[in-house]
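A favour, since you know our structure tokens better than I do. What I am after is a single protein written out in full by you. Could you add the entry underneath, on a fresh line?


***
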Amino acid sequence: MHGQNSIDALLTAALPQGSLYAVGGRVRDELRTQFEAAPVSTKDLDFVVTGMPLESLLAALRPLGRIDVVGASFSVVKLSVGAETVDVALPRRERSLGVGHREFAVEAGPDVSLEEDLARRDFRMNMLARALPSGLLIDPYGGEADIRERRIDILAPAAFSEDPLRVLRAAQFAARFEYSTTANLRSAMTAAAPLVTSVSAERVHDELTKLFVKARKPSIGLELLRETGVLAYLWPELLEGVGIEQNEWHAYDVWTHLLATLNATPPGDLTIRLAALLHDVGKPRTKDGPHFYRHEIVGAEMAEAMLERFRFSNEVVKTTEHLVRHHMYSADPQLTDAALRRFIRRVQPENIERLFALRQADVRGSGLPKRDDSNERFEDRVASELAKKPAFSVTDLAVSGDDVISVLLRRGEAPPGFTGDERVGAALRWLFEQVTDEPERNERTLLLQSLEQYLDRVGTP
């Protein structure tokens, strides 16, 4: 807030009186703070300056910090003051020359009114400005009433056809704010649904990420996308679960279960939320009566393709696919210590916490009472095993590939200058299996003795 007040004061002092307005999410969220119980804040600091040509605006801003004009036709100036960068723009009007937010005639400058600038924005709740320094709210299109009533609406039916990305923004705002959507908005979304295919994968990724990371109940946004037909153009695989009944362990069809599991995960961790949404996505394609054999394998492959479609990072794709593939693990508290270590090795220690969080959400998303405490007892066993810090990969061994190479050279089983071949990896994997069964054998002297025995047994190729 200190940064916001400082920027406000700098701009107010530098610009003509009555020319400066705060716009965008900041104004909307100030009203949300006023009308809603939870405090709301935004990092966006956007301003519009009326009554000035671009040259005059640049002259006024230069003494304040570094400036960068973003497209002369748009007349948006990025002002950097210290570590903070804000957008200071002239009001502009836009006229669509086609569909898909690709061709627009843009006019910007002192001849464009503030009201015209606000009218080009996506939703009425965002068509707000606040005069600085007076604080007077400028609300020509009823945005304050929409925020007070916790609803999202558009000003013109063409809002989505002009910029199809707005259908995703509507979904993520509806989920994040838990606002209702008007019939007017849903009708326009439905009409524009096919146009979402014209939106770049990167922009789709950004809106979906906001939906999954920030919303308490992402299902609100996904249901809106399904009801308006948009989801069929993004992730039609999810719709395969609608109406697919499950076995006696689930109260819901696959689609409803996926949404309930998703909602049962906390905001913040994108990977867990994607895994929750996609963990059973393979069930419709594997249904055999009441069974869904190997649905986790089919689902993992589907999840990978679905996430790559919208350019999710390699790390997110890999981890989500891994969680989906392994979510059907047997939580048997009676497993032997060696079997527990093999489970941890298969899942990988860095994924354990997320996999357990996914199982907990899966149980809550079943719609049925929890059966017993076997999951919790299994998780306690795994935690105890992890605390012992046994070897969970070849790299955790007390010997390395260099040690195996040295032994092979000393035994005369490798030529001078030998740097390794498949025998080195095979030997390390064999040693790793030994310490998985007997962790206390992960000691350098014992492993070197075992290595000699292993090489005696396998011989020289």
